[in-house]
Amino acid sequence: MKKNILVVDDSALMRRVICDIIDSEGTFQVKDVCRDGLEAYEKLKTVAYDAVILDVNMPRMDGLELLEKIQQDRIKATVIMVSTLTTKDADVTIRAMELGAVDFITKPCNIIEAKSDEFRRRILQMLKAVIRSDDAKAQASPQVQAAGAEKAVPVKKPKKLERTGASGKKVLVALACSTGGPKALQSVVPYLPRDLNAPMLLVQHMPVGFTKSMADRLDELSDIEVKEAVEGDVLKKGCVYVAPGGKHMEIKRQADGGHVVRLNDAPAIGGLRPCANVTYESLRTSGYDEIVCVVLTGMGSDGTGGILSLKQQKNIYVISQDAASCVVYGMPKAIAEAGVVDEVVPLTEIAHTIIKKVGVQ
Q1: Measured at the alpha carbon of residue 10, what is the angle toward residues 205 and 178, in degrees to the nearest 5?
Q2: Mean predicted confidence (pLDDT) in 241-255
Q3: Count of CB atoms within 10 A of residue 194's CB?
Q4: d(CA 114, CA 111)
Q5: This prediction's pTM
């Protein structure tokens, strides 16, 4: 049976392009189209869809207002936003994901981009990922899913690590996430203390501009400092460095023993820039005694190769989000299947697990 999709956009041309893309894939069909959030709200009150493709800027009721109504009325909907690459829309999109949108797709600037293979690939890839995840969750209770995440592959018994504050070890936290990440991060970063006894690197797959909006929003919500990394940043404890969209982030050890951020414009890897594998691999030559690797919700397997490479040179401890709390159980599944996960925990326990391993100053 085909999955039913609702398309909401005030542009007739964009509605037609998106509908053609969705209907071209045998798995999906566009069940309804709406010109604005108000029309969509009336539909969502009575019709259940497998996913909603939602524009940000629309008359009468925009995408953000619709999400607020959906949240207020407790309407169940899997929403994927379509957002233009502007600073204003980046802020709105981050807010949209706070309100429940699972992720976003960047809106084409012109008809040529709209009809490109790349735009088609992004829409279908996102739909497949989030719907597959929703289907899996519908077939099992949260308890069964959580148990299954740990039983699917051998998971080593958690190591008894000394608190860094007591042992004097130099520890770094390096976190990777993708689809569903911006929302998930709000259940992690704001719960970290400002005196966390380690710097934290954060690689979230996002375009230019959106990572700055995400970092600023997390900083507003958190005691710990959060910033979009810039070239030459010196890593310090109690600060989260977000890899900027459109750049790969590496960490380089200095002669004085300190570590700095190095950004580069090397080609995207598997369509990803920033790529978590690049960041993890750069830590092979760092001066940190231990690296706590955290893998959250996301499509694909970015992070796994880098962590496996890092493990050859460094003492690592790997924390993976469980299947039940992931928007897309892709990246955590890949690292679990690699057999190097030390703990599988629900999203709400990620921050506590990080603090337990790292300690405070």
Answers
A1: 10
A2: 97
A3: 13
A4: 5
A5: 0.87
